[in-house]
Design goal:
single chain; mainly beta; 10-stranded antiparallel beta barrel; two-stranded antiparallel sheet; 2 helices
Length: about 280
């Protein structure tokens, strides 16, 4: 997403919120529906990964679906939020984004980290990334039925790509020696964007919640993430949530000393919120 495009998205969200939601929020300010000090989110996240990566100082890319056959997988997403004043939060989010060991037969020849993997050989590959994001949020609009805030966070991705092939002979009679290649990249990315929560009912029962976070990093790359959920409060402390999350769309340009990445992780989420 370009910097101009991301600014247009953020501006549109803010305008729509103020025109359609903010007037409702002013209806009654006696007590926030969303009152808490500590909130823990724990969710099952079913990810459909797509994209490509490249080795250091290499121009060719490896597609994780077409070349390596990566499929959807399940993982965990969690967040701990401390609202230390009515409008101020600090939080940390974490999720292991691991396309674990996957076996496939290559349909083309490519090079990764200086090692050549020939078409027709069986490979064992993985793409693992630990996502950790500490952040701060200020709710510049907070009323009884919800809030509109600005979140600032540092997204840290610790990513490792591995491809292994045992010694073998392909169907065409080509001999492949045992080959293994791997590369790692730690990517800290500062991001910012709007976060909202709005109660659809006249009681703290049903709500919608979402955010859009992104940053354009000029020659280094760009990043965007977003989610949208609907939740139902069963009590003051417990809520069930479900929705869809674009966990990350990360683009990092490869150089002579680090991997290149164009990876998208997105899918359905379902879980619980615990608030105190």
């Amino acid at each position: 997403m370009s910097r101009v495009g991301s600014h247009h998205v953020l501006l549109a969200i803010a305008i729509l919120f103020n025109l359609s939601v903010a007037p409702l929020l002013h209806a009654d300010d006696k007590e926030d529906f969303d009152t808490y000090k500590i909130r823990i989110d724990a969710a099952w996240y079913y990810i459909n990964p797509s994209g490509s990566f490249s080795g250091t100082n290499e121009s060719g890319t490896i597609d994780i679906q077409k070349d390596l056959g990566f499929k959807s997988y399940s993982t965990f997403a969690g967040k701990a939020d401390w609202k230390f004043t009515r409008k101020n939060h600090v939080y940390i989010a974490i999720s292991p984004l691991n396309s674990s060991s996957h076996q496939s037969v290559l349909n083309r020849t490519f090079t990764f980290q200086g090692q050549t993997f020939n078409a027709g050989i069986a490979t064992d590959s993985s793409l693992n990334s630990l996502y950790v994001a500490p952040g701060y949020q200020y709710d510049f609009i907070r009323r009884k039925r919800g809030h509109l805030g600005l979140a600032l966070q540092l997204d840290i991705f610790n990513t490792t790509a591995k491809i292994n092939a045992a010694a073998q002979v392909t169907g065409g009679g080509v001999r492949q020696a045992a080959t293994s290649a791997s590369g790692s990249l730690v990517t800290p990315i500062p991001v910012a964007g709007p976060d909202f929560r709005f109660y659809l009912t006249n009681s703290p029962k049903v709500f919608v919640q979402g955010n859009v976070l992104g940053m354009y990093l000029f020659g280094y790359g760009n990043f965007v993430s977003s989610n949208g959920i609907i939740g139902v409060n069963f009590s003051r402390h417990f809520a069930a949530v479900g929705g869809y999350q674009l966990g990350s769309r990360l683009h990092v340009n490869g150089t002579h000393d680090h991997l290149g990445l164009r990876i998208t992780q997105k899918g359905a989420i379902a879980g619980l919120q615990v608030s105190y």
